[in-house]
Structures are given as structure tokens and as C-alpha cells.
Amino acid sequence: METPSTQQATPPIGVGADDADHASEVNLPSIVIERRVEWPDTDAAGHYHHSTVVRWVEAAEAALLRRLDLAHLFGSTPRVHFEADYRARLWFGDLVRIELCVTKVGTSSLHYAFSVRGKGEEQAATGRMTIAHSAARASGATPWPDEVRHLLTKAGAQAPETLS
Asked: How far apart are the first and last CA of the chain?
């Protein structure tokens, strides 16, 4: 799997040959956040628990949506797919960098790719998450509003959220 940073350099997933002329118009958003592996993040073996990655990815998503002034989407974007590959252990106290990139904006869905890195830039986890847009009281997925679609395809890389 490509890392999120390499996906930004190539046309986004879902952009086919017919869309090649429009690929340069797309500037998909991304963000990097930093966290520390806290004691509750670890399991009996002393390294991070697999569920911690889900929380870190959702923290990155929340930071990205706040930066894009899209916090109103909280509660209307259920997860429909999440997958992760765990590649290395992270230990209590380690500084962790989570990179989250939008890879595709569908009619009513949004695809993310993520990478979790520990010290020395070693990839600890990579994966993908897909969410759907479901407006308040809707019984299923609903199309993204035009202004939201614009931000989700044009906002580009956001400034990192780092620990001091």
C-alpha cells in the first residue's frame, strides 16, 4: 500500500484516465497530528493496543474537519469501512505522528488513507477508512453539499498539529 504522502503526489484514487485533465484541479486535504502513547493506550505486552490507532485516526479526522470549518459534519458521517495493517510496535511514552489524507470524494462518501509513524519515521500502522454522509434524520446516505464538496477537494495540506 502506498503511504498517504505518496498518494498526494499522484492522481487521487478514483480519478481515471477520463478525469486526468481535472486531476490538477483537485487539491485533496490532509493533516499530520502528533500524539504520545499514553499508559491506557498500551496492552499487557507493553506496546500500543490495536484500537488506539482508530482513536488516533479519528483525532486526525477531527483536527482536519475543524481546520476546514466543517465541524458541523460531526454526527452525520458514519464509518462504513476501516482497515489497518500493523507493522511495528509503539511503546508507552513514544511520540507518534499520524498522517491522514483524503484520497477520494464520492457523491456521498469520503475515503481516507492514514499512516502512523513512531520514532525514526518507522511506519507502525497504515490503512484506510471510508465514511458516508448522512444528513440529519436521513435514512441513508445523502450527497455532500456543494460547499462541503468544494472544501473536501480543494483545501490541500493543512498545517501540522504538533505537541509542544
From this structure: 31
Helices (H), 1-143: 4-9, 20-23, 50-67
pLDDT in tens, 29-83: 999 999 999 999 888 888 888 899 999 999 999 999 999 999 999 889 999 999 9
Residue 33: C-alpha distances to residues 45, 47, 105, 134 (Å): 26, 20, 22, 27
Closest CA to 117 of 16, 34, 45: 34
pTM of this structure: 0.81
Q: Are 102 and 157 in contact (CB under 8 A)?
A: no
Q: Tell which phi-psi region holds residue 81, choosing left (phi > 0), alpha (psi between -120 and 50) or beta.
A: beta
